[in-house]
Each structure stands twice: as C-alpha cells, then as structure tokens.
C-alpha cells in the first residue's frame, strides 16, 4: 500500500449512468475515512442527454487529501470513463501518467464513431502516456449480479456501483457507509438493493483479484480541527443555515420558491423539514415566490426566497418593494452561467453587480457571499441576521459549484451562533399614542416592525415614497431626499467585520482579492505560490455590501491587487470605483471553477517583477 | 370551517369609526370607489373580529389605494402582485383576515397568473376586484375588461381584443366562491362582501365600479329602474326585470337564455357548471345585462390550512435542529 497526500478522481459516463450518485458515495466514504475532501459535480442540463455523446457526459470529481484543502483539484489523477464520450471529454484534464479505468464494453465501433474516434484509443496506443486499466466492466458487473435473477438491462445499471467498489478498493475506503446506504435506499426494492450491493462488492474484489493494479493507495486522515464532522453540500448548508436563523430568532421560516437549477435542492431540503415548522411554498412563478416571502415577512415570519439568476431577474421588482417596505427578506441566488437561460448546470459568479445594483431607483441592500459549500451555512445565517436586525432584503450569493459541491463540515453548535432578535414593536412609539412604522432605531437606523395582530399599531406600508417616521405617502422633495439618504445610510452603516488579510510575513507586494466560490482556487493558488518561496497576500470577502471598513486601506498597501473571478471583472470594477485602486481583473468564464494551477502560474511572473522593483 | 373561524374575536363592539384613519382620501370626486369604501368600513365592524387582525393587500391602480383608507394593517404593494403577497400572509398566519383589493388591470392583466393560482389553490383570502373596464391611474388606456371596439388613448382606432369576463375566469380557475356586485347597490355590496369574507377559501368578488373620469357610465345601463341586472339567489328561480317579467330558461338546445316565458332555472351556488353558464349571460360588449350575486359558493379544503397541518414545531427548536444538521454519518476528529 502506497501512501499519498492527496488524489483527485473523476468519475465520468453518460448522464443517467449514476455517475453523480457514485461520486457522492465515494465522497461520503472518504469523509468516514477522515480525509479532507472537496467535490465538483458537472452534468448537462438535459435529464437524459443523447446517449454516448460528448454533450451527454456527466462527471463527478472529488479531491481527497490528508491535509486541509479547499478545491476539488484542477487535474484528476484517476479518470473512470464508462464510455468513449466520457474519455474524450475528460482526457485533456487528466494528469500526464494518470490512471484511466475504462469500460471496454462501451468502446464499440458505433460508440467510438459517435464521438469521432477513428480507432479505439484503448488499443491504438494513443494512451501510451497513461496507465490504462481497460476491461469489460459492464460484463463483470452483469456476471456478478445475474445469478440474483436480475435482468440484463437492470444488471448493466449496477456498473456505477461496480466502479465505485473498484475505486474503494484502490483507495482503501471503508465500505460500510455505501453498504448501509444501499440497504436503506433500496429497502423497498430488495432485488435492486442486492444487485447493487453485489456489484459494489464484486468491483471491490476485482481490484485485488484481477492483478491489474500494481499498487493500492492510502490517504491518511487529515489533520483538521477537533470536532464532529459530516459531509455537507452548499445547498444543504444553505437550508440548514436558514433553519438555524429561524430557530435562533424564534421566527417561523417561510420559503417561497419556484423550481430552478441549481437552486431547487434548497427548496427540497426545506420542504422535508416540516417537523421543524418550516413552511415551504412552491409558487406559480419566481415573482410570486418572492412576493409570498414578502407577505410572510409582513406577517412576522422570516421570509426567504431561493433562486438562480433568471429567477432574480423576475424577483427584482419585489426586492425593490422590500427595500421600500424595509422588511426582512433573504434572497439566495445560487448563481449559474448566464445571460438568459445560459448554462443552467454550470457555475458562474456573474450576478454580483446585479445583486448590488440591479434595481431601478436608489435601492441599496446588503450582500453577502459564501466561499465554499460549508460556508453557505454561515453566509446565509449572516444574511438572515442582517435582514431581521436591519429590516431589509439581503442577498446571499452562492453558486452551482459550491451549491452542489460538498466537503467535510465541522458541525457548529447552533446554541453558540450569534443571536437574532426580531424585536417586534408592541407599543405605540409616537406622540399621542400613535404608531410610527418608520421611526428608526438611532443606532441601527432600522425601522420599527409591528406585525398584524398587534393592537393599536395598525398601519399601512407600501411602495410609494414616504414621510420619514410616519411612513405616510409623500411626494414632496424633502421627504424623498431624506428617505433616499436614510435607506442608504442604514445599509452603509451596518457593521461588518474587518477583512482578514492573509499575508503571513506581512510584506507581500501582490494581493489577491476574492469573493464567493473563487475562495478555494485563490487559497490553493496562494499556497502554491508560497511553496515556491514567493509571497502573496489574500483577502476573501464575506460582505460585498457594505464592504469591510479596512478594505480600502488594506488594498492600498499592495503594489498589485488582482481579483480572480468567474465573470468579466465585477468585483474588480467595484473595488476600482470605491477605492480608486488599480484592481486587476483575472477572469475565466468556462462555466467551471477557476484553476488553481493556472492562477498560480499567472501570479509567479507578476510577483517576481514586483519583487525585482 | 368559516373564513374567520381562526381569527380572534373582537373584545368589544367596533364601529365604522374604528376603521376610518385620518388619511385624506384621494380618489376623484364622484368615483365609485367611495361607495365601496364606505360600505366596507361599515361592514368590517360587524364581522366580530379584532380590527388588528385584518390585513388588506393591494396592488397598483386607483382602487389599490384602498388600504390607506382603512385603519387596519395593510400593504399597498406592486402592480399585479397582491394575491401573491396575500398568499404569503395567509400561509404564515391563520389568525388574520386577509383581503386583497385589486382592479381589472392589476388582477386580470399584469397579475393574471397570481389571480388564477390563488383561486385554484383555494388559499383563504378574499379578493375584491374593482372592475371599471379602464386604466384610470395611467389616465385612460384600454383594460383587459374593456369592450372590443372601445376608443381609448391607447386604442384610438378601437380596441381589437375581446374582454375577460372576471366571473367566468374565476370559475374556470376553480374558485370556490365567486360573486359579482355593483358599487351603486350598498345592501347587495354589503351582503356579498360579508359572504365572501366569511367563506373559507379563495373568494373573488367582482365589483362593477364606475370611473367617471375615463369610463363614465360604463354600467349605467345596469342602474336604472328598467335595468337588466339578473340577481342570483341560491335556491331561487332566476328571474329579473320589471315585475320579474324576464326569466333565465334552458332552451331546447340546453343553452341558457333570457325569455319572457318558460320555466326559469333555479340557481344552485354549488353547481359550477350552472354558475359558468350564468356568468356567460354577461354582455361582453357594452354591458346592458349582467347577473349579480353569488355565482358559486362551495366548501373545499384550503391550501393554507393543509399546509399548516403538515407543520409541527419541536419543543426545543434549537436542540431538534442540532440533531438534524448532525445527521447520521458523522466522524470525530480528536
């Protein structure tokens, strides 16, 4: 058994081959082995894309390591290719000398021709630079399960678990988790259950028995902070974060949502949580989803809506209303590639400016972003805390990469999370026993919030401009100017923690600034740069509005400020506008997370040039 | 269960005054909305529930200023969305009487989707649709209930579209309570609104309402002594006109028609098919004849009651959530 620090494995096959499930299980088993890990699901928008085509390839990448990692890795060390399309689509990413496990059953002349292979790459020598383990995986799986009386077609469908069994053997993963999972998942379909278990076990045995693999690998436990861990995806963490905010505030959680990729899982997870008092409402459209949440907030709930870019477009008018009403509303945008329908299943960070500025009129609102799957919990909790405390809509930006990706999560103690106090009005607050719904807390500038059913505080609010304090409709110049200023000041003065500058020696010349899911690649790129003996600083932003008070000064301390983003330079634009610093965009828009290696390579000459000055 | 059964009862008698805020009403003098407002302010104290438990949500348009003029909780929201917002209020709170005030443009044009879905869900809200067959607040464009051929600012050569029949539309959407009334008949307005609010489920009340600035006289033909308003009374033969000389009968083809002889059909508010047929007696063009009253009133489970029935709260929310987020597959690092 050879010990390695880390390995990146990519499972690839047709959408419908069960690739995502196999990958997810591998990650789960890895978690139980005590490794750090990070996953990258990648699949087409079509549910069953044309079989055997490049466009129909679904893949799942997981990096496992014995140390703290933050990305699923750039280049797989192992590629499991269940058909020629999967090989063709993924080979370029595989490291030179990497291991290819290919299912020869699918490498038929017809399948090869379909993706433009003129000869079989498994036999024509074109894969010479790699380690090749090509065998009839489908046949092996079928042979293992057919004795159970499973039909041929059904038998063939177990090959994802056969492949998983093989990988489990190769990387010495514990098998109990997957066995338990299969027992539970197919409890009502005993034959399917037995078939998948048999395939999984057969794959495990085949690794040893075939003699095809010279070495088994072991990835030792990672040295992570002490605590109890679980595997968590970003979308699940988002659901839990919202529930935590509701539980801590004592408010009922109301989710208004409309199905949209890649955000629907948040709706699914919350819809399962009825026993925790979570109301989920699948509205007739994105507009109604946001509107119902505003209605629920007006009624005294924590109103939330979860969507992706196209949904935000539709909710925009309602978000503007919430700005005007000054009611809590959490809008989670699990960003995807745009514009328009764009790339529904691929990731992007291109909705930052939309969140910050995408409304008519002066309509400021706080924006927070999550940097990793587990960070979605903290980010959305913070969004909810701000929303309730400051009576404002708040954007929480995640994206498809971290929403669907997973990593180990040290389970937080909910009791220890920061408090959230709704502080509902119960008594008149104005002269003569009147209630003034827009009377503000002098510290936070948050307006008073009285919920229906509170006697004596009956009041009307609306989208029209208001008189300060009374909230009565006002069209006069002074009221408008004053209310615009109050809404701006309220959001701008929300205290946010100072940006933490990761600059180990404090004398780097180049600083990377990231937000959202660029976090992992930027963190890893910084590690790579530092391993070469060079210096680079790094800042990850949780709060995009308001920005941390120390940020401008911090950035001015560096010769070069580089902003890696999966968009065309949205944060760099904000930093330039706000701080007059020459922030340099570093942008890639492939519908994929940034590559840490490519980013590190980009940085090296820049750092050298600055050091030479 | 009745519409207001879960709303707390008023501790003492309320009067119209309790529902009149100090706000200056800003509708045009002579607007039909005044009559509806006065009727409404008179009706609310008779419903026997706490005034702080009323919530009125409106959209955009002349009638949507309504919440400002009633001293309860209210929201003047955005164009077309009040039914969607009210649905959130109703889902969130069983102890509120949730009312939507909307217009023909707000409910049937920009907000059409929300209207039909609120009705088919049967969420416990009352939707009061002021139909003046015109866009008034934007100064006189054709609305989705304007008659074909109508000359307006946006249709100088005549409107080319057929109008919606709000009652037919609501019935088609499966609404469990559908009624129509007219701004000039205070007693009828009161009776219908009261029945609608007390109905558990989505109720739609269309009010024919005169806009004397941009569509004056749109309903005049229904207001004179010889007016052909067809009053619908559950269990009663459908007869109308001077001395009830006209009847709604089923002809040899099985189609409802107005006749001077024959056996009038008997209204049955639980018969959706009949309700739709009756609604179709409304003129699509200039209205000279229209049924008013409660077309349909049936009891069905409401979506908000069913949604709440699925919920439960653990005694210790934080502890229960801690257990949930921990899950079953955990590992410990020392």
Can you offer a commentary on this structure?
The complex is a heterodimer of chains A (613) and B (334). By secondary structure, chain A is α/β, with parallel strands linked by helices. Helix content of chain A is 37%, strand content 19%. Chain A has three domains: 217 residues, Pyruvate-ferredoxin oxidoreductase, PFOR, domain III (Pyruvate-ferredoxin Oxidoreductase, domain 3, 3-Layer(aba) Sandwich), CATH 3.40.920.10; 187 residues, 3-Layer(aba) Sandwich (Rossmann fold); 112 residues, Rossmann fold (3-Layer(aba) Sandwich). The mean pLDDT of chain A is 96. The two termini of chain A are 49 Å apart. The radius of gyration of chain A is 26 Å and the shape is globular. In chain A, α3 links the parallel β6 and β7. In chain A, α6 packs across α8. Chain B has 334 residues and is an alpha/beta fold. Chain B has one domain: Thiamin diphosphate (ThDP)-binding fold, Pyr/PP domains (Rossmann fold, 3-Layer(aba) Sandwich). In chain B, 25% of the residues lie in helices and 19% in strands. Chain B has nine helices and twelve strands. In chain B, strands 2-1-3-4-6-5-11-7 form an eight-stranded mixed β-sheet, with helices on both faces. In chain B, strands 8-9-10 form a three-stranded antiparallel β-sheet, with no helix packed on it. In chain B, β5, α6 and β6 form a beta-alpha-beta unit. The longest helix of chain B is centred in the middle third of the chain and has 13 residues. The mean pLDDT of chain B is 96. The interface between A and B is large, with 73 and 59 residues.
Give the total of domains of chain B: 1
Using the alpha-carbon principal axes, give the shape of chain B: globular
The CATH class of the largest domain in chain A turns out to be Alpha Beta
Range of helix content of chain A: 25-40%
Q: Biggest sheet of chain B: strands, sense, closure?
A: 8 strands, mixed
Task: Give the percentage of residues in beta strands of chain B.
Answer: 15-25%
Instruction: Estimate the strand proportion of chain A.
Output: 15-25%
């Amino acid at each position: 058994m050879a010990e390695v620090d880390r390995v990146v494995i990519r499972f690839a096959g047709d959408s419908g081959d069960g690739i995502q499930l196999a990958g997810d299980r591998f990650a789960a088993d890895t978690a139980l082995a005590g490794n750090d890990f990070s996953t990258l699901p990648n699949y087409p928008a079509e549910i069953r894309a044309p079989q055997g085509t490049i466009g129909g390839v679904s893949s799942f990448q997981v990096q496992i390591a014995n140390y703290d990692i933050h990305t699923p890795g750039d280049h797989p060390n192992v590629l499991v290719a269940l058909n020629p399309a999967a090989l063709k689509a993924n080979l370029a990413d595989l490291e030179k000398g990497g291991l290819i496990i290919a299912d020869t059953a699918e490498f038929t002349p017809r399948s090869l021709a379909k993706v433009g292979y003129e000869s079989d790459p498994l036999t024509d020598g074109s894969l010479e630079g790699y380690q090749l383990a090509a065998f009839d995986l489908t046949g092996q799986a079928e042979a293992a399960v057919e004795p159970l009386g499973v039909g041929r077609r059904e038998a063939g469908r177990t090959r994802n678990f056969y492949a998983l069994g093989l990988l489990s053997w190769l990387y010495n993963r514990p098998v109990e988790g997957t066995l338990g999972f299969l027992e539970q998942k197919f409890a009502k379909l005993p034959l399917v259950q037995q078939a998948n278990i048999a395939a999984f076990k057969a794959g495990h045995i085949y690794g040893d028995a075939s003699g095809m693999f010279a070495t088994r690998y072991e990835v030792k436990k990672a040295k992570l902070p002490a605590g109890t861990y679980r595997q968590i995806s970003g979308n699940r963490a988002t659901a839990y974060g919202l529930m935590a905010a509701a539980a801590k505030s004592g408010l009922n959680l109301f989710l208004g949502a409309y199905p949209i990729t890649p955000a629907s899982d948040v709706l699914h997870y919350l819809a399962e949580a009825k026993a925790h008092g979570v109301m989920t409402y699948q509205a007739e459209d994105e507009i109604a989803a946001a509107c119902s949440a505003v209605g629920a907030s007006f009624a005294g709930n924590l109103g939330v809506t979860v969507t992706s870019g196209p949904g935000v477009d539709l909710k925009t008018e309602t978000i503007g209303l919430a700005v005007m009403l000054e009611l809590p509303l959490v809008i989670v945008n699990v960003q995807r590639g745009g514009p328009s329908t764009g790339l529904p299943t691929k990731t992007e960070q291109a909705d930052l400016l939309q969140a910050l500025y995408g409304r008519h009129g002066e309509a400021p609102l706080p924006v927070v972003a999550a940097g990793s799957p587990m960070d979605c919990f903290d980010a959305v909790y913070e969004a909810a805390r701000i929303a309730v405390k400051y009576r404002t809509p708040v954007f929480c930006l995640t994206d498809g990469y971290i929403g669907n990706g997973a990593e180990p999560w040290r389970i937080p103690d909910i009791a220890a999370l920061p408090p959230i106090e709704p502080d509902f009005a119960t008594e008149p607050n104005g002269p003569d026993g009147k209630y003034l719904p827009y009377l503000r807390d002098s510290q936070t500038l948050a307006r008073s919030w009285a919920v229906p059913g509170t006697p004596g505080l009956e009041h009307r609010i609306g989208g029209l401009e208001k008189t300060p304090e009374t909230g009565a409709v006002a069209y006069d110049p002074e009221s408008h100017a004053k209310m615009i200023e109050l809404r701006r000041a309220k959001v701008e003065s929300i205290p946010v923690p100072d940006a933490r500058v990761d600059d180990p020696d404090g004398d780097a010349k180049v600083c990377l600034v990231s937000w959202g899911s660029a976090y992992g690649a930027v963190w890893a790129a910084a590690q790579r740069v530092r391993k070469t003996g060079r210096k680079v600083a790094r800042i990850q932003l949780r709060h995009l509005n308001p920005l941390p008070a120390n940020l401008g000064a911090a950035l001015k301390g560096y010769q070069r400020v580089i902003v890696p983003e999966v968009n065309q330079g949205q944060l760099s634009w904000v930093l330039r506008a706000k701080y007059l610093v020459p922030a340099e965009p570093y942008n890639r828009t492939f519908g994929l997370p940034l590559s840490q290696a490519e980013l590190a390579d980009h940085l090296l000459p820049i750092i050298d040039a600055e050091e030479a000055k | 269960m009745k519409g207001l059964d879960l709303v707390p009862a008023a501790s003492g008698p309320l009067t119209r005054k309790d529902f009149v805020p100090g706000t200056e009403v800003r509708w045009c003098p002579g607007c039909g909305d005044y009559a509806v407002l006065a009727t409404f302010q008179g009706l609310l104290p008779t419903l026997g529930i706490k005034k702080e438990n009323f919530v009125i949500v409106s959209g955009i348009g002349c009638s949507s200023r309504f919440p400002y003029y009633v001293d309860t909780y209210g929201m003047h929201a955005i164009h077309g969305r009040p039914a969607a917002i009210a649905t959130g209020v109703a889902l969130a709170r069983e102890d509120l009487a949730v009312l939507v005030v909307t217009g023909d443009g707000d409910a049937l044009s920009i907000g059409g989707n929300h209207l039909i879905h609120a009705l088919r869900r049967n969420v416990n809200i009352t939707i009061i649709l002021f139909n003046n067959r015109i866009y008034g607040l934007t100064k006189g464009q054709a609305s989705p209930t304007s008659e074909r051929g109508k000359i307006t600012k946006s249709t100088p050569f005549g409107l080319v579209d057929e109008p919606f029949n709000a009652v037919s539309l609501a019935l088609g959407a499966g609404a469990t309570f559908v009624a129509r009334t007219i701004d000039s008949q205070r007693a009828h307005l009161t009776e219908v609104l009261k029945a609608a609010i007390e109905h558990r489920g989505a109720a739609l009340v269309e009010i024919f309402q005169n806009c004397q600035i941009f569509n004056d006289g749109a309903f005049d033909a229904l207001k004179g002594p010889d007016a052909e308003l067809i009053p619908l009374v559950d269990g009663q033969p459908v007869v109308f006109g001077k001395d009830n000389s006209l009847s709604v009968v089923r002809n040899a083809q099985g189609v409802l028609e107005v006749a001077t002889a024959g056996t009038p059909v008997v209204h049955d508010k639980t018969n959706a098919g009949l309700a739709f047929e009756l609604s179709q007696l409304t003129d699509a063009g200039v209205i000279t004849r229209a049924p008013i009253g409660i077309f349909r009133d049936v009891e069905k489970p409401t979506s908000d009651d069913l949604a709440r029935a699925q919920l439960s709260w653990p005694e210790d929310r934080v502890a229960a959530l801690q257990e949930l987020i921990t899950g079953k597959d955990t590992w410990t690092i020392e």
